[in-house]
Amino acid sequence: MSHSHGNASSANDPRQPLAAKPYTPRPVAPEDLPVDYSGFIAVILGVSGVMFRYKICSWLAIIFCAQSLANMRNLENDLKQVSMAMMFAIMGLVTNYLGPNRPAAKK
């Protein structure tokens, strides 16, 4: 079978290159975007890291902040949420590692 690049193959080609349009995604309203669960979890973990002084919660909040930053869709709302979660996580780490020690449990 020989492939010819003449008029015979282009005459049988049903595609129309002039009618092709580039793909443009439909605009989605910010209210219709899916919920950013990793940002929400980061806020919850950051707050619990500060309030209850759990180091693991603060570290997990930073990890979830990074995940939320990587998957950010709506810049305005997500950036506010991620920055708040990052503040809580950093505040929790500072108070845990540099703050006064927790009182020892009485026996």
Provide an overview of this structure.
This protein is mostly helical and 107 residues long. The chain has a domain at 55-98. Helix content is 57%, strand content 0%. It has four helices and no strands. It has helices at residues 7-11, 37-52, 55-70, 75-98. Helix 2 packs antiparallel against helix 3. Keywords: Membrane, Transmembrane, Transmembrane helix. This is Protein Asterix. Belongs to the Asterix family. GO terms for molecular function: protein folding chaperone.
How much helical structure, as a percent, in the residues? 55-70%
The residue-averaged pLDDT reads 85
The general outline is rod-shaped
What's the SSE pattern?
Answer: HHHH
Radius of gyration: 27 Å
Low-confidence stretches: none
Number of strands: 0
Instruction: Please identify the oligomeric state.
Output: single chain
Distance between the termini: 90 Å
Structural class of the secondary structure composition? Answer: mainly alpha
Tally of DSSP helical segments: 4
Strand count, sense and barrel status of the largest sheet are: none
The fraction of residues assigned to DSSP E strands is under 5%
Which secondary structure elements does this structure contain, and how are they paired or packed?
Blueprint: H1 7-11, H2 37-52, H3 55-70, H4 75-98
Region (Disordered): 1-25
Pfam families: ASTER (PF03669)
Protein name: Protein Asterix
